[in-house]
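User: Predict the complex.
Assistant: Input components as received:
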Amino acid sequence: MSAASSDRARVAIIGASGYTGGELCRLLLGHPRALVTAVMAKRAAGQRIDEVFPHLRGLLTLQIEAFDADAVAARADVAFAALPHGESALVVAALRARGVITLDLSADFRLHDAAAWAAWYGSKEHPEHPAAALLAEAVYGIPERHRAALRGAGLVAVPGCYPTASILAIAPLLAAGLVSPEGLIIDAKSGASGAGRTPGLATHLPEAAEGVRAYKVGGAHRHTAEIEQELAIAARRDAGALAVTFTPHLLPMTRGILACVYAAPTDAARDAGAYREALVAAYAHEPFIDVLPAGALPDTAHVRGSNRVHVQAVYDARARRVLAIAALDNLVKGASGQAIQCLNAARGWPETLGLGAAPLFP
Amino acid sequence: MSAASSDRARVAIIGASGYTGGELCRLLLGHPRALVTAVMAKRAAGQRIDEVFPHLRGLLTLQIEAFDADAVAARADVAFAALPHGESALVVAALRARGVITLDLSADFRLHDAAAWAAWYGSKEHPEHPAAALLAEAVYGIPERHRAALRGAGLVAVPGCYPTASILAIAPLLAAGLVSPEGLIIDAKSGASGAGRTPGLATHLPEAAEGVRAYKVGGAHRHTAEIEQELAIAARRDAGALAVTFTPHLLPMTRGILACVYAAPTDAARDAGAYREALVAAYAHEPFIDVLPAGALPDTAHVRGSNRVHVQAVYDARARRVLAIAALDNLVKGASGQAIQCLNAARGWPETLGLGAAPLFP
Amino acid sequence: MSAASSDRARVAIIGASGYTGGELCRLLLGHPRALVTAVMAKRAAGQRIDEVFPHLRGLLTLQIEAFDADAVAARADVAFAALPHGESALVVAALRARGVITLDLSADFRLHDAAAWAAWYGSKEHPEHPAAALLAEAVYGIPERHRAALRGAGLVAVPGCYPTASILAIAPLLAAGLVSPEGLIIDAKSGASGAGRTPGLATHLPEAAEGVRAYKVGGAHRHTAEIEQELAIAARRDAGALAVTFTPHLLPMTRGILACVYAAPTDAARDAGAYREALVAAYAHEPFIDVLPAGALPDTAHVRGSNRVHVQAVYDARARRVLAIAALDNLVKGASGQAIQCLNAARGWPETLGLGAAPLFP
Amino acid sequence: MSAASSDRARVAIIGASGYTGGELCRLLLGHPRALVTAVMAKRAAGQRIDEVFPHLRGLLTLQIEAFDADAVAARADVAFAALPHGESALVVAALRARGVITLDLSADFRLHDAAAWAAWYGSKEHPEHPAAALLAEAVYGIPERHRAALRGAGLVAVPGCYPTASILAIAPLLAAGLVSPEGLIIDAKSGASGAGRTPGLATHLPEAAEGVRAYKVGGAHRHTAEIEQELAIAARRDAGALAVTFTPHLLPMTRGILACVYAAPTDAARDAGAYREALVAAYAHEPFIDVLPAGALPDTAHVRGSNRVHVQAVYDARARRVLAIAALDNLVKGASGQAIQCLNAARGWPETLGLGAAPLFP
């Protein structure tokens, strides 16, 4: 190991052949304190990472291996797990048993309550949480909400793209008591990369390129659970006291989440600017979050490829409704970038390490 | 005039160089009872229509003329006006004074109340409605809502794309008393053709192709007024008794509106299927509206280029919220196709004349 | 059968669940002399056609059946086969044996020479042509090139999208002796629907939406063979005397082929307008082909959804090179529309029957 | 000035409100030896750069100023000029007169011959080159071709996006004598950002999103001149001895150039792999250029947002034709990234400074 890399954390990426895995590779290549030492994946094992991701050609040439917890423990200090839920819990348990700091991008450790996991994620194969004992240790990985708990954490449950956008938009207004936790409606729009790298008719270009549609409506999308958990915390309500309407949409674009959260004001007579001011107050010292000037509205095109978030809040006096909006890149702040931000927070490094790049526009 | 065309209504299109004008040309070419005899536009006058719209090459070769009400009256029985508001009212007044049946695609005759027009559309040039005397005569042109009034109408106010989608989605549930008219939220997504043919940064491909954003939020979009007017009628409320939250979005696609309407159920204990059933009942005999099977969700890609509408209603029992969704093509059922459907209804022709083509998919 | 449909040709579509099958359904719905009476497909058998193609909802509700030649013969006068090569030959043979007029959209009957088929299309399963005896009967289905032979034909080999565009662009210049048949280069660009409806990584929206790439370069694309066969005929050369360089590209759009053909002029001193004039002369009476005005260039957006073709020819005096360009919709004039045009030609009907619709723009 | 920035080159960006200006800002934010100290633009003067480019919000907040050569000289060591041709020459002359190292992204100093400039770029306002005396000093800024001359250069003419892709693809084969300089054909495909930030109908999303077209065909595109100049150098021919056919296309995507260069082999009996091998030999030590493995083909999606170039060469034995292909990002290696690479080369810094980021995929 060269002198230059000797002080770097050695990092393994498990589930490296999917989009969040590829994005972890891309971002970690520019991280001064981390060095990718292993990339693992099931079907792609045996190929080189730059065969699976030609954009990494000339930049990262590691051979993809099948997952092996001992190999990770021997060659890495930190692991990012970018695997399907259920499968991820077992991998994480094996890594934690070997003392590897683990950032889990699946949903397996996001819900604090094992019963909630079983209700939302239980399957025939895994009716109960496969590693429920670890739930108490896991920190929900939005640094802007749980920074203190992240410091020194060994297991971080990195949230999904929809929850990150939704929570960052509305949590400060709930925390400040400006909007009611009752009757929240989240109408969210996602690019197709959020559906992952496995091809299907819904993301087949001819069918997806010129259409928009909602999916998993009516309370069916699993991200609803973690959104409610986190918003209940923000609103200082009991877990389960809060039910949101969450409608995800698939849009004809690659990256980006735009979350529009509709809320009832607690006091309709309040100054219309109060909602935006609450965002300004909450995010004044956050390196990645920009509250847009009054009158400007978030656009996913302005945060693409970066860990940045654009937020805004507007009051509709006619209809007595507050609208809070956040835009972010689902693969960066909505997944891999936030995971790295959590690693930085956990290790006590500046949170911006490896994440300083400006968005790619246009 | 050939024998074949002698029994056709002669049609003038005013404002022929914009997208709704071009779409009128395209659709009327296939209408067995109409014949385009004049195309008029301001800046494009002197050019041939197929220079302005190369897709019409070999199909329509009329010379574009400047608007002249006498020329229209001499050479046409019917006029479609696809002009900006304010300007349109004056043109319509001139045409109606000459007895020309007029279908106005602007907002000028959609609101029944001249004061409401002044509040929403008044400008320095036109602080008051330029032709308020005609408001009483105008019929709001959604045949599925106002079929009887359209029969024999001389002036039809063809609604906007957002209102058509929103009203078709939720009006039957309001009319049936299944949802409350209070607190309606409409989150609507539009393709870029809705912004018209004048280039601007918001629809410049590099800035628009990979982003999504809300615009004119907080009660600022003018279509709010006609949505409220029509939903109040459906709910049998006084005009002005109903305030909706309406959030339009610009999406990276060319055609299509997806309107998601969130409503509170009047009885949360009701059977979850009741909402879809109300749509089925309302649209059972409508030639252009398909209530999707339970479980299926509307996609703008499935109605593109056609006058068809796909609708669905879903009940979210967890959050006690009804979601009604409609998908349509903003330039067809949201503008030119609906205008032709109104003409058919006004003349007592089958409403499907010239509008029978299947959507273009993929 | 109703009186209205009693004089219609009964049509079966085999391979109805792919894009060309869906497009045949869409177009035949508007054909006054044809009636779709059977839709057949392997995997989709048992579903309704409007489940497989939601854009047909309310328009066509036939149940999809597994292929059965006797059933076709009993219930249809005409069959369109939209199947993979090899498989199609067997289906076509069964249909022809039962006297069904067959329009084959596969490559199986496009090459006149069985040895050429074996060289380009032979597989382990079908090393030799499965129905070579029918090759002599098959007519290559570009009506603009083989109209006389199509009249009364029982088997039409409908050409691929790339060949149609390439041949229509350059054949008239070869036929007129204006360009050399040596050294032709065809650089062609296709929308993703040309790759069919089976999802794959190459057409997965996140990977395809913002990239362009060539594929099957270096003489590897099978369409090369039929292009050479037809251009040799145009140039009055022996089959095999002509070798073209053909480079297909996949573009981030759904429909459209743009073929650019580079050729050496036979006389560099000739008037620059002569090449366009040759196109004008060749296509003066063609209902679907527009030679654009000098200075205008074809754009696939201007022919989308229609059977129309825009062509142009330009001379580059500096480099002494002729460029002929054609734009068409790969699913219409490049497949299903042309198949219907061939049926019309075969039956002696006006070629425009069912194909009169204007392109969808924008 | 902080200690951290005291050893940085101070950089002014002139023409900062266009895409190449914005891209310079984005990339220089990550450059460890450069610090943007001034951003200048005509119409946007007075606004903040992050108002004009919202993706820079929170990252760069400089006020845009009108151009002032003395101000640049006082506050910057280096200037990037991203201006229209003609206008740029005057700005560059003013800057060079004040000793500012200048990287000019316009075409004004790319052609060595003032007469050629007048022929290709002369206008009524500037019939002759406005600063011809500086032509001798200017270095054509492709480091892979002119690295030695760049070292210490005071004026770099950064090439256009099409020439960079075309030259990098074919120059090594010309230099190695493997292909003939006669009859070269370049068929190039560009994303819409290449047309700049000024909205127009050609890049209006509804008209551009689903179409492809060639433009400025027949030797009309001005980039032809610099391509010929550089390829003549590679082929060791006299300037003007070489005429290429160059056909640019506009594609429905934002970034990317794919250049396909067709050439005649000098010896058709040569091994098919020789062409790729020549690229491997030429680019073995280049940090930004990857010759793809045999069988792989360049895709613009794999280099997006980066300074990287993917190249390949293939021999078509049937048609005796060599095809060389390059893919790059038109705004990075095709403009701003290459300009920074030239600055690095001119200053003797590692060429990768500020340009190390991996492409953004998907």
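Chain A has twelve helices and 14 strands.
Let me know if you want any component modeled separately.
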